[in-house]
Amino acid sequence: MQEIWIDYLNALDAKALALTDEEILDAVEKALDAQGRGEVVIEPRVHLVPESSDKGHFNILRGYVKSLGYAGVKVVGDFVDNYKVGLPSEMAVLNLFDPETGVPKAVIDATAITDMRTGAVTALGAKYLARKNSKILGHIGARGTSYWNVRLLDHIYDFDEIRVHSRRPESRNAFAERLERDLGKKIIVTDNWKDCLEGADIMIEASRLPEPTPLFKTEWVKKGAFVVPYGTMSALEFDLTDIMDKVVVDDWGQCGPGKPYGALRRHVDEGKVTAENLHAEIGQIVCGQKPGRESDDETILFWHRGLSTTDVALGAAMVDKAHAMNIGQRIRFA
């Protein structure tokens, strides 16, 4: 059998690659465009719960992007109490394969990929669905993906005002300090959900609730706002979707009935959000098959659960850049 070598990129390598905001957004946007054109395969995520969901679980995401020539499988742990032992709540490994032969091509620390691609999907959702003159961002949550939400959104919009909130004061204060250092602008830290979200042009909910709790109030959403809730456990009031002119998802296959978790889980399972009244998947908008925002008065909600294809796209971008920069290791497989 011929020799097989695998590209291995660890967390230090991923950091050294220092993907730029534009590189991240470009890779993810191309994946969304390919999805809209039907040139990907997205298998709905599955979950492994070792003991109980109170402790945490693993998400297994599987996808294929034809234009990149890669299939990929990512396993990401989601363990909310990891901060108590000095670990991030989400850690991940991405495996890339040749879709023609099944040969493994790369093993990548995907913790940063998970954070970056989530933030990129949030930001690209705003690019197509938020008002062009959006100036106020309200962001709930301070986990790893939150940083990239704010950073990439601000890259597109250059906000006049950014408000943040999370449950633990030490978490939200550290989050704000990091954003102030990296974005070079003042961040408003709030001690409650209302002050953070009410009246914002773009409202992001990335909370870590132990069980569904309606902390995000419908009355705080002004007409024309763009709302992105993606907490594992829903923080929404049930009537929130009633005021939306459009509801968009990343992939209906993993948002539809019978799947566990998610911000709109009850809305879907009880028939409030259906395949029939859904406006579009984001890929259909990115590739031009369906319209995004059509007027400043539209109030729009975008629910994304995480696309395996965006993991593959960022992994491919990292491998290409690693080759160019001579970063990483080559490991003999066979």
TrEMBL record:
- Keywords noted in UniProt: Lyase, NAD
Write out the GO MF terms.
Answer: ornithine cyclodeaminase activity
Its EC number is 4.3.1.12
Specify the enzyme's EC class, one word: lyase
Superkingdom per UniProt: Bacteria
Q: Please give the InterPro entries that the UniProt record associates with this protein.
A: NAD(P)-bd_dom_sf, ODC_Mu_crystall, ODC_N
> What family, per the record?
Belongs to the ornithine cyclodeaminase/mu-crystallin family.
- Tell me what this protein is called: Ornithine cyclodeaminase
Question: Which organism was this protein described from?
Answer: Rhizobium halophytocola
Output the lineage of the source organism: Bacteria, Pseudomonadati, Pseudomonadota, Alphaproteobacteria, Hyphomicrobiales
